[in-house]
Amino acid sequence: MARRGRGRVVGIILMVMLLAWGAMGTWQRLKPLPEGIGVAFPERPAEQVRFVADLTWYDAAGKRHLDQAIFDEALAMIAQARRLVVADMFLFNDFAGSAEGDGFRPLSRQLSDALIEQKRRHPGLEAVLITDPLNTLYAGLELDHLQRLREAGVAVVESDLTRLRASNPLWSGFWHLGPRWFGNDSDGGWLPNALGPGRVTLRSYLSLLNFNANHRKTLVVDQGDGWSGLVTSANPHDASSRHGNVALRFNGPAVLDLLANGAAGGGLVRRGAARPRACLGRGIRCAKAAGCNC
Known about the structure:
By secondary structure, the chain is α+β, with helices and mostly antiparallel strands. It has a domain at 46-164 and 212-288: Endonuclease, Chain A (2-Layer Sandwich), CATH 3.30.870.10. The protein has eight helices and ten strands. The strands form two sheets. An eight-stranded mixed β-sheet has the order 2-1-10-9-8-3-4-5, with helices on both faces. It has a two-stranded antiparallel ribbon with strand order 6-7. Strand 6 and strand 7 (199-200) form a beta hairpin. The longest helix has 29 residues, at 2-30.
């Protein structure tokens, strides 16, 4: 009789756990998105639109050629900014590629150096860098270039992917009930980093299984009394620097929507929420009131 009672208790516990798992997975799949995410902006004019591309090809002799222009454009945009820079970049690391060999370009270092130098030249510049937590293996690594940016006064934020809907609800239902709350840190990693150097914890890979990401690659800067934007498929990721990619650069009112979209991305923050939101808020107000100082 006692054995039957214990079996009933175990069955009830398992049923409750399954119901909680299913309910959490359903909620994570269907929950409301944060304000500004998944919205359609009204049609606005885009001025001085230019197509920019990174090209890679082989000639008849089998020699590989590279014609890179996208990050040359991005670096030039940053170099003339005086009030605001908002860079939202998915992959922003030097993993799996050597900048010294095989034609890889050190894009992560070049973009970091450009932001740091412009902040040094213009201390009043509001500079915000939004990036995906995949770069740090979900807080399992500390990256030197991100630390350099923070020390230089650039607001560095990682998108908080837990606020997005689950693309893998079967796993995310379980993860949100348990592993999520253990957090992560860069000490004590014992598993190899599949993306590059260093060791990471098991929690990094458990986070990866949610299959969520902030894939945006955008840049907004002030340009004189106006604003200029860049939307691209290219990442400042050294190992991707030989890939073919495309971008559009444009000015005019449409840049305001790109900036507002960046502010929505800034709302998905894991670290340093207050200052980036304030920077983005000032940037939007500045954009709407031409000629003011951010």
